[in-house]
Amino acid sequence: MSANFKFPEIYNFPPFWTLQPAMESRRRQCEIWCDIILQWTKSNDLKQVVVADLQKTPLFKNQSIQRELNGQDAIFILDQLVQRQNAEWADDSQSKLKMIWRKPAQWGTLMHQWAQKNNSIGVMFTFFELREGEDTQSEPFHMLDQEQFMEAASYLASKKMAKLIKSDNFDESGISFL
């Protein structure tokens, strides 16, 4: 796991590790937990996590204050992450979670900004070129999950910011930024 990740100060505040009974306090607590989970999984490049494994990591166990998030509370907070659309359950038993660091609109905006920056408005790209090509290696959408990539491209098409050409083969589908 990433040694570079720095937990916020609240991570060392013992009451943070117990779900708060007051609804406004709990709402804010869950919001903070969700942000920490997103930042931590992103810094560790974890696109999918196994809940049981996650509960053994420093994310849910703070050794310095001898606190850990119990399983029921962890699931409650992970459900909040799903409700925020920053994750989705990868299986029916809710044992695996697919992380969604950015929403389709955010990914689409990044792609469109890349096209503008590179004078590529009106140029047709295959999904393969855009997702895996040399020109996008330094971009955050490089090697983006295919499903999330398709959702971002569809978002752009719905906003008339791109035109899609769909194929049965994902890599052969195309996009032209408008």
Would you mind describing this structure in some detail?
This protein is of the alpha+beta class and 178 residues long. It has two domains: 9-99, Arc Repressor Mutant, subunit A (Orthogonal Bundle); 104-177, Arc Repressor Mutant, subunit A, CATH 1.10.10.10. Helices cover 40% and strands 14% of the residues. It contains six helices and eight strands; from the N terminus they run αβαββαββαβααββ. The strands form three sheets. It has a three-stranded antiparallel β-sheet with strand order 1-5-4. Strand 7 and strand 8 (174-177) form a beta hairpin. It is elongated, with a radius of gyration of 19 Å. It starts with 22 loop residues before the first helix and ends with a strand. The mean pLDDT is 93.
SSE pattern, N- to C-terminal = HEHEEHEEHEHHEE
Q: Enumerate the strands of the largest sheet in spatial order, edge to edge or round the barrel.
A: 1-5-4
Number of helices: 6
Structural class: alpha+beta
Anisotropy-based shape: elongated
Strand content: 5-15%
Overall CATH class of the largest domain: Mainly Alpha
Features:
178 residues; alpha+beta; Arc Repressor Mutant, subunit A; 3-stranded antiparallel β-sheet; 6 helices; 8 strands; elongated
Break the fold down into its secondary structure elements and pairings:
Blueprint: H1 23-43, E1 48-50, H2 51-54, E2 61-62, E3 67-68, H3 71-83, E4 87-89, E5 96-99, H4 104-117, E6 124-126, H5 127-132, H6 146-158, E7 162-165, E8 174-177
Antiparallel strand pairs: 1-5, 2-3, 4-5, 6-8, 7-8
